[in-house]
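DM from R.C. (forwarded with permission)

"hey, sorry to bug you on a friday — could you get me a structure for this? deadline for the figure draft is monday and I only need the backbone to look sensible"
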Amino acid sequence: MKLLSLIVLSLILLISCTKQNTNAPEESQLMQVTSFTGEKTTLENSSEYSYEQIIKWETNNEITDPVFAIRITTTDNLLPGNLTADENGWLRQNENNVWTDQNEFSQIFQSEDGELQHIISDVEIKYFADNEESKIFPVNFFKYREIGTKITSYGGHIDDCIIGTGTMFYLYENIEDIFVDGLYAEYFMYRLNTINATTNEIISEGDWYSSLDMENIRILYLNSFTTPALLPNNEEEKTQLQAYVVTKSGFEDVDNPNAISFTVMDGFYPETLIYLRNSYMLGDHHYITYYEANSSDEAPLELVDGIIHYATPFWKDLEENYVLIGGSDVDLNFRWGWSGEYVNDNPSFKKNDLVYDENTGLNYHSFITFMDVRFDGEPLSIEEFPAIDENLVTDDDGTIWLRIPKEYDFSQKVLLTGLDYGTHTLEVRAVDAQLKADETPVSFEFVMHEPVPPEEREGILVVNDGVNGQFAPPDELESLYREYLSSYNGIVDVIVRNEIEPSGLHFCNERLSPTDLQNYELVIYSMDYPADYYYFEREFGVLKIYTDLSGNLILSGGKNIQKSFYYDYLVSYNFPQDFWNIDNSSGQAAEYLGTNWLDKPYFIGANSENENFPDIEVRLPVLDWQPPYIDLRAGFSLISFFKEEFISSEIIYRMNCKPVGFDDFSPTQEEFDYYNEQPMAIKKDFGDHKCYLFGFPLAYMETEQVQEILTQIISEIQE
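My reply, with the result:
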């Protein structure tokens, strides 16, 4: 017997017990069966067991010295090996005799692999007395057992609930303990009745139907188009489903049908969802080089020049559009579903496999049968399921959809390739067991941008990654950078990263979009309040796309740069290597000077290693919105520097450390020897673009000197 049968049977076999025959004949009758019992005995230290069936009977006192003959039928119509019978099936008591004076018969069956191959289903008894043979007295084993029917439903508990006009019921034999094929259902009989919603009295009875007409005798699918039909109830009425089992041995439990009741309502329909967080794009200009650790799915990937490129969801640009930089190489993997499929409608959570009504959020006990899909105003056509003939469905208004049966693996996902640049629209709607489609299909619009060639870019974008409003107010930093770039003739745009609403598609990492960045010839990423926490490493993927597209980058910060390097080491992707050829695989490529504003205020400026860059000094006195500690210590503490042995690119600035004895807050000779001349600014020339790294915040340096630095960088990137 298959495992599935065993599982079903373990739920449905009746606990074996002795039960008196409630239909026993009256005393005036000549003979009656008094019991037909079964008793299970588990074998010690084994999963096997024995099952003994015992039948007992008695005759009227008027019958003198009767003897009895017994004929049995088993659930597989085979006689147990220890028994023999004559040509008419009567059990032999010895070689020539079928008669016995015993008024009791028993037979023991042994299980094999935890199952009984058969048991006795029917017994016939006759007696011989006063030179006369009696009539045959038949008895069915199941008449002495509580065999019933269990009804469950799709979507959980349904009894006394509100449901839609399409659902699925599951019918089971309510028998326990003995694993015998004959106890299984041959089929079920079922009907739908109308009952009073208050009293539960039957108003009208439906016709009985056999589950033999169903694809699976235990799965009953009903909707408004089936026979019987599941139709909306009138007020003060409910629908009742009754069912009873007919076993393979022929026993019909017609006198003991099970019943559940519910209220059927119209107007429900599913809410369709596109799982954008689990929809991935992968191409030359749409990828990340580290895997989203929080992702529930394994993102598609490809190996490019020895580097793994992982697919990533859409970006959202500054105008709130879903975007990507595309091309003929990009693969778009969409995934969709419906509200109730997962807990919190999130594939990262446990699967519910329920269907919630879009308007009320109610579980109306339906299930999804089809998914209808359109793309760019036409039925979606995929290789496995072309948009032709019976695969199409047309709405009353003429709108045509590709209708994919839910059982297909591709009914909830699609791979799109070779798309043109421009705006595209994906439309999806779920169709439930009522054969009702989502009345408000989900529509998702996105824009595939063409890469902007470097020669067509113009302007500078300053990204303020600050979160501290008191010591790094965005408007003050914007004014300062506009002053730094006052000699630049192009457009200067300034945005605050923290003010960009996260899309949620990248687990709150990237807020920038490379489709915005690629329009600028230079991006300055400012982490200029050095005591703050910043998110440069969370924008790594976007900035990597930008620089791969020949974009030029400046990172300005302080102690927080070292923190970013350390964070980078923990998550094992190496943006210092990608941007500046700094090997941070050991996590030791960057250090910081002071732990707070007053600790080690030794940094007073930086000496240029490149004749085109001026030496630079810390601004004294500080601006009115900057902390006064720099003035009090005549030096700066919260900066990062880099270990020269890990650098494979050009060093453009080294630390100018306070000399020993300069003031009361000067370094020791040992400290001076260690800190002075440490690399503080790096330049990497990739040929088609350049990246600059400053371990001191440009916002705290002398304005005219910063202006010279940025003028020189602009000159270099425009060469």
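R.C.: lifesaver. Residues 1-25 have pLDDT under 50 and may be disordered.
me: no worries. The chain is about 10% helix and 35% strand.
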